[in-house]
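Support request, please re-run this one:
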Amino acid sequence: MRKALMALALGALVSMAGQPQQTVSPEEKALKEAMRSMADGMTRIQKAILYNDKEQLLAGVRMLKRIQPGFLTKHGEALKKFMPDNSKFAMSLAKKSEIHIQRYVDMMREDIFSRQDYSNIAAGYTHILSECVGCHQKLRKWRWGP
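Re-run finished. Output below.
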């Protein structure tokens, strides 16, 4: 059994060594890092809503607020690479999503401090998630099924 696992691991290493390294542009790397931070912020917001944790909610909103302003405009060139056939549409969609997400983040922040209405905060979270999914469906051509 141990020899079989070693052989499998060695085979995986050899197969990976034969593949060419993909170089990632600095723009693409920054885009991926920003998307990861946004995903982390969304995760914090979701957990905060579920556990009624105002501090985590604020932390998640701050993460989105810190990333979002001008994010898609700054990384437009990397974004265009996802849709080379229709880069004008990609930028238009991304800019609209950026505006909507910023508006929902601001609304959530206002609800945290003034009304403390978790149903509105949850609705804002849902709208942001819909913006993310909608953009990824169009830009990355996410599809369900065959």
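The two ends are 37 Å apart (CA to CA). Residues 4-10 have pLDDT under 50 and may be disordered.
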